[in-house]
Amino acid sequence: MVAAVTAGAEMTTLEALTRWLEGNLPMLPRAVAASLGHTLAGCAALPPIPTLESRVASAGLHLLLRGSDARLWESEEWQPLYRDWCDGMSFNALIKGAAFYEGPALVLIRTPDSVLGALSTSWVEGNGKFGGSMESFLFALEPAFVQCKSSSRTGNYVYFNSRNKHYPRGLGFGGQLGFCRLWLDADFEDCYVLESDATYGPGRLLPSQGGLQTRFEVLNVEVWGCGGLEAAKAQAAQRERLESAREQARKVDKARLCDNEFDKEMFLANTFSATADSREPNPKEEPGTAS
Fold first, then answer.
1. Which of 71, 77, 179, 245 shows a CA-CA span of 20 to 30 A to 138?
2. What is the rounded CA–CA span in Å between residue 260 and residue 250?
3. Rounded to whole angstroms, how far apart are CA atoms 124 and 236?
4. 105-111 and 146-149: which strand pairing?
5. CA–CA separation, 158 vs 125, rounded Å?
6. 208 falls in which pLDDT band (50, 70, 90)?
7. How much of the chain, in percent, has pLDDT values that exceed 70?
8. Which of 37, 33, 20 shows the shortest CA–CA distance to 145?
9. Other CB atoms within 10 A of residue 192 CB
10. What pTM, to 2 d.p., does this model score?
């Protein structure tokens, strides 16, 4: 973690380093102060930060992330919404785990030489349109810490689409349609970052980033819910409502199918009956021999 911070800071004076910490890791001094107070004066220690069962974020990177944002610092234990090594490397599995989460959630991505990601407060599919809020931000954790906060009100904070086949399918942040600042496609095969965009502040998300667009290989992807029990309950309730609506729709469709089959049988039966009744008798046929 220290290497990531010092590499990201690149400061030559204590004053400059202090300014950098206040701007990028505003909550970290609280942890240091509390630790010193506990050690030197016997003050109450901060409660231990829960560990993450993650293949992307180590304990140090977890602390770094929490220290970068007040909401994350004060958040309850993070809940795994999607982890590729548990749920499979599948965008549909990511959708299943993260959709309708009503709180901030982190996307963590490990590549062969870096760790990067984003925070989003919107996990409802936009049907080919951008959503989210200014609370979203991008970051890199390894090899250097970088945070790219929202810098405008363009509205292009997060793009989340799996259903509308007429638009790109995947998860993106910033930029514009088809050209996001950070992009994960639905196959996790065509992923890239841009040098800059109009939504998020400056910063290199990849150490090898050069030129306008830099592609990267995804080794692991995880999504962690940071909204606590209330956000998890709200997500579960929304899922129940949707499942109830789907079940009701299935019942209605089945009832309509039965009605259509009944009407079809009645129509055909009446048609054949009317045809038989309207047939003219064949004079060559003897009574009782007509077929």
1. 77
2. 15
3. 14
4. unpaired
5. 10
6. confident
7. 75
8. 20
9. 20
10. 0.77
Provide the pLDDT confidence category of residue 290 given band limits of 50, 70 and 90: very low
* Structure tokens, 165: 């086949």
Q: So what's the pLDDT on residue 249?
A: 87
CB neighbours (10 Å) of residue 98?
Answer: 20
Report residue 173 as tokens: 């942040």
Q: Alpha-carbon distance 197 to 174, whole Å?
A: 7
Q: For the CA atoms of the chain, what is the radius of gyration?
A: 29
State the Cα–Cα distance between residues 2 and 115, nearest whole angstrom: 15
- On the 0-12 / 13-18 / 19+ scale of CB atoms within 10 A, 11 is middle
What percentage of the chain's residues is helix, strand, coil (to nearest 5)? 40, 20, 40
In this structure, what DSSP letter does residue 72 have?
H
Can you give the residue ranges of every domain in the chain?
2-226, 229-270
The residue written with tokens 């911070």 in the block is 5
Q: What is the per-residue pLDDT across 137-161, written as a single tens digit (0 to 9) for each? A: 999 999 999 999 998 777 899 999 9
Residue 38 pLDDT: 44
Which residues contact residue 40 at a Cβ distance below 8 angstroms, ignoring those fewer than 6 apart? none
Cβ-based burial of 74 (10 A; exposed 0-12, middle 13-18, buried ≥19): exposed
Quote the tokens at residue 17: 């380093």
Cβ atoms of 230 and 79 within 8 Å: the answer is no
Distance, in Å, from the CA atom of 91 to the CA atom of 108, rounded to the nearest integer, reads 14
Q: What is the per-residue pLDDT across 78-101, written as a single tens digit (0 to 9) for each?
A: 999 999 999 999 999 999 999 999
